[in-house]
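Postdoc handover notes: sequence design on the structure in folder B. Input tokens:
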């Protein structure tokens, strides 16, 4: 008897920045909470609309600033925005300031107002221009608190620069927050320090659940910043040396954000490596593939190899032994290509393609060749793959 659990296509879903539908794995959905009842022993689900957080006239503002990447906020930024929405009272408005283009749903994320600064690029280092933009926004809205993700990709640096320039009270690496206080670990994580909510809060990752039981107003504000980072770069004391890009195959697996991994089901290693190069992905392998001599030992992923934290992990022909699953437990999205629908990797995967791994690799390489001959790029292949993933979800 087939005991595989199927995902109900009528379950709540969210819409990504690319317009793709994603089924929500918890009880929260884009349309709201799930209400469950039983009828004749069968569980019935229907959606309850989320309520707007507040409709009161705003008397104060909490400002959240973050950089966007390819039109979306990352998990850390969404957590920071959720924190602001959770500590805001009925008379407080949550304003989101995004450095870069943003195509997401600000209301679903908890923002009442959205200010987008598309002239800024996360890949460009323009600290003084970003500081001036943040200071101008603070002058316009006079927020009682400013929240930023405490990361190493620009937000944490910007928050510290602003706090120093404005002589504002600040708390960094915040792991606990409510309307009255913040707290952080000190003394090598052996002690816990708390203080009243400061003017600038730099929130640590995973301190807040980004799923909210309400939504914000999501009003997009046309706000002009009188400063062009490109034109002011020559006058700045900071010189951007740009980002040095290296071949993804040379990147350490622990640092890779996109990994394609081969198992026993991959027989044509050169074709697999061509696909990895086309997608711009780092190469990993299962222990079986390494033991067979197809890949070097430094490519092995699992409890006895490397533990990875990729945003996207595609496993070709890997059954998913417990040691391998241990190595990918922190990956955000796992896609499995395997002939066996009951393989352990299928239970871990967010998307499983029931197909021969070698045939799938060949088909993707053909699609990439067709895209190149039509004047496209590897991005076109990624976009088509994402659309296919959305249809399968």
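Designed sequence:
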């Amino acid at each position: 008897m087939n005991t595989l659990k199927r995902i109900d296509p009528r379950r709540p879903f969210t819409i990504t920045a690319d317009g793709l539908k994603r089924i929500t794995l918890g009880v929260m959905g884009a349309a709201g909470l799930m209400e469950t009842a039983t009828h004749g022993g069968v569980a019935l689900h229907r959606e309850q609309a989320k309520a707007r957080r507040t409709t009161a006239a705003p008397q104060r503002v909490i400002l959240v600033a973050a950089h966007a990447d390819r039109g979306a906020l990352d998990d850390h930024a969404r957590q920071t925005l959720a924190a602001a929405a959770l500590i805001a009272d009925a008379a407080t408005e949550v304003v989101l300031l995004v450095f870069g283009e943003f195509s997401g749903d600000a209301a679903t994320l908890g923002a009442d107002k959205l200010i987008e600064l598309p002239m800024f690029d996360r890949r460009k280092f323009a600290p003084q221009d970003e500081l001036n933009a943040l200071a101008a926004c603070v002058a316009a809205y006079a927020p009682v608190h400013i929240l930023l993700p405490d990361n190493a990709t620009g937000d944490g640096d910007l928050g510290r620069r602003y706090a120093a320039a404005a002589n504002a009270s600040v708390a960094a690496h915040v792991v606990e927050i409510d309307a009255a206080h913040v707290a952080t670990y000190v003394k090598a994580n052996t002690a816990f320090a708390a203080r009243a909510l400061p003017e600038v809060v730099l929130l640590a990752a995973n301190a807040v659940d980004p799923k909210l039981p309400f939504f914000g107003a999501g009003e997009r504000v046309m706000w002009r910043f009188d400063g062009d980072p490109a034109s002011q770069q020559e006058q700045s004391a900071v010189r951007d040396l740009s980002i040095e890009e290296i071949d993804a195959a040379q990147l350490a697996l622990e640092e890779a954000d996109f990994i394609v991994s081969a198992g026993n089901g991959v027989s044509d290693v050169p074709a697999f490596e061509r696909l990895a190069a086309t997608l711009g992905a780092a190469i990993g392998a299962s222990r079986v593939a390494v033991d067979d001599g197809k890949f070097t030992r430094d490519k092995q992923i699992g409890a006895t190899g490397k533990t990875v934290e990729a945003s996207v992990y595609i496993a070709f022909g890997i059954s998913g032994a417990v040691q391998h699953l241990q190595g990918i437990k922190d990956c955000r999205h796992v896609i499995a290509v395997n002939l066996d629908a009951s393989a352990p990797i299928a239970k871990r995967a967010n998307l499983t393609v029931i197909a021969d791994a070698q045939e799938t690799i060949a088909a993707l390489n053909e699609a990439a060749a067709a895209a190149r001959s039509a004047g496209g790029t590897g991005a076109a292949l990624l976009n088509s793959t994402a659309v296919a993933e959305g249809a399968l979800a």
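Context for whoever picks this up: The radius of gyration is 23 Å. Don't rerun without checking with the PI first.
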